[in-house]
Amino acid sequence: MTKGQKVSLAKRGGGTLTLVRMGLGWDAVKKRGLFGSKSQSIDLDASALLFDTAGNLVDAVWFRQLRSQDGAVQHTGDNLTGAGEGDDESIVVDLTRLSPGTAQIFFTVNSFTGQDFSQIENAFCRLIDETTNEELARYELTGSGRHNAQIMAKVSRDGGAWSMTAIGATASGRTFQDLLPAAAAHL
């Protein structure tokens, strides 16, 4: 996906998407020194911000609140380093259990430890149909730079169905609360 691109989340062959997972992966850029390269720890955090039709924040799922109030959104846990292959953090959303008042879910990433994105490589977010394990959309977080956060994407109600829009807006902040003004610009 590219910034601004919107894709329908209707299942191929018909039917509606019911269970999705947003995966976030990253690696820390290796620092070069006199004695070779050294890995650094970078704590990126994935968050899901739930907004109603009026644009009000109704709930947030992040490393300090791993489940939404309605139980439909579940963060699988905080990865403090980005070590390992594949998704380093995941947020699972049961679209059928979401409160009817939830109109949009924003997925954000921020560096809790404060490093900027110039120190991060191989960063991506992706949306997976959890019932089939099919990757529906992938967005490369290629915006290496002096920012330490990004509004990655949003999933929105489109009538009775859902769609995903890649946002890729850079921001600054160490927690989701710091990112609310940047997210609000894309409601």
TrEMBL record:
Pfam families: TerD. InterPro entries: Stress/Tellurium_Resist, TerD. Residues 1-173 form the TerD domain. CDD domains: TerD_like. Transmembrane segments: none annotated. This is Tellurium resistance protein TerZ. The lineage of its organism: Bacteria, Bacillati, Actinomycetota, Actinomycetes, Pseudonocardiales.
